[in-house]
Amino acid sequence: MKNTFSFELQKTDGAARTGVIRTPRGEVRTPAFMPVGTAATVKAMMPESVAETGADILLGNTYHLMLRPTAERIDRLGGLHRFMNWDRPILTDSGGFQVMSLSGLRKLTEDGVTFKSHIDGSKHVLSPETSMEIQRLLGSDIVMCFDECPALPADKSRIADSMRLSMRWADRSRAAFGDRPGHALFGIQQGGLEEDLRAESAEALQQIGFEGYAVGGLAVGEGQEAMFGCLDFAPGQLPVDKPRYLMGVGKPDDIVGAVKRGIDMMDCVLPSRSGRTGQVFTRHGVVNIKNARHADDPRPLDDTCRCPACRNYSRAYLHHVFRSQEMISGMLLTWHNLTYFQDIMQGMRAAIAAGTFDAWEADFHAGRAAGDI
Ligand SMILES: CNc1nc2cc(C(N)=O)ccc2[nH]1
After folding, report:
1. Residue 370: is its pLDDT beyond 70?
2. Model pLDDT for residues 57-85, shown as the tens digit of each residue
3. Tens digit of pLDDT for each residue in 286-315?
4. I need a surface site. Which of 150, 175, 238, 306 has the fewest CB within 10 A?
5. What are the strands of the beta sheet with 244-246, ordered from one edge?
């Protein structure tokens, strides 16, 4: 096993790309969707089940893990992969986004963010330096720069100031990351929906140099049209030979539109969170299993789906166990949603490789318009 990190761009079809990220813990086929394993678990899933859905990599949340059980404890126990029994690649976020949305009593300065834990009120500091140390202790394969993601809408001067702070933090993140063969540090482009600010951010990040580049600052309430408008130019401002990661996205049609515009990696809680709330994604659209119309329906959710929920159970059963708040409900629906999201990724990888992405996309949208869900 070579102790290196690399990305091979294999085929393009329009702006869409397919390739492979090679890490010491295995390969990540792109475009890739990363399930979110917030507190060292993809909720309601065994890690071997997550692997069976087709996930090559998952995401861990630095903010949650630093508070509980702490990165030091995970390090003492052999690192996050050993701790959660996932031996494939893990990407960890920096904690920057979640500290601003989850913690209490925050104070943001040039140095970083001091805050109180939402769990027990204890005081903590997140900065480029502490975030790099925490992610090193966790042992993640892909580390994210510590940045600030401004809430939208915001005026241009606020977006510019925030982006420039994030670029100074990117520089400090790079310095603190050090020389770690086989591990990657990704920079995060900011700049809101502004093409000139995003260009300035992309240029600043390339001057520093990263193994991959994220498009940050999106999926924060701007809506799909504005997000796609930004993705019509932002990925193209980033190096063509490095992975491009869109953070926090998204619904199936968001994912397809992002890949169409040159994105290689994404993460989102939607398939797992929705699985627990009875929202089921299928190729014909969304099924809300709670709805009484499923109570006597003997059909599977999707008779073309390979997941255990579709192979072994009826909608009537899934409706029953959801209504009865049985644990198997979240397990089966999460398993289905993650399988469906991975099958979308596999479909796009194959279509881009064959040069038929446009036809695949048309079929994807036609299936959702067809209804009969
Ligand atoms: C769910 N939406 C979302 N937008 C994000 C932006 C960032 C970011 N660092 O700009 C990180 C996580 C994010 N999650």
Report:
1. no
2. 999 999 999 999 999 999 999 999 999 99
3. 999 999 999 999 999 999 999 999 999 999
4. 175
5. 32-34, 265-267, 244-246, 212-215, 184-189, 142-144, 90-92, 58-60
Atom of ligand 1 nearest to the CA of 250: 1
What gap in Å lies between CA 361 and CA 348, rounded to an integer? 8
* Cβ(215)–Cβ(263) below 8 Å: yes
Catalytic residue among 141, 147, 254, 267: 267
267 has catalytic annotation: yes
pTM for this model (two decimals): 0.98
Whole-number Å distance, alpha carbon 93 to ligand 1 midpoint, is: 9
Contact between 373 and 282 under an 8 Å Cβ cutoff? The reply is yes
Residue 156 sits at the vertex; the CA angle it makes with 152 and 159, to the nearest 5 degrees, is: 60
Closest ligand 1 atom number to CA of residue 217: 10
Could you say which of 13, 56, 93, 302 is catalytic? 93
What is the SS3 assignment for 190?
coil
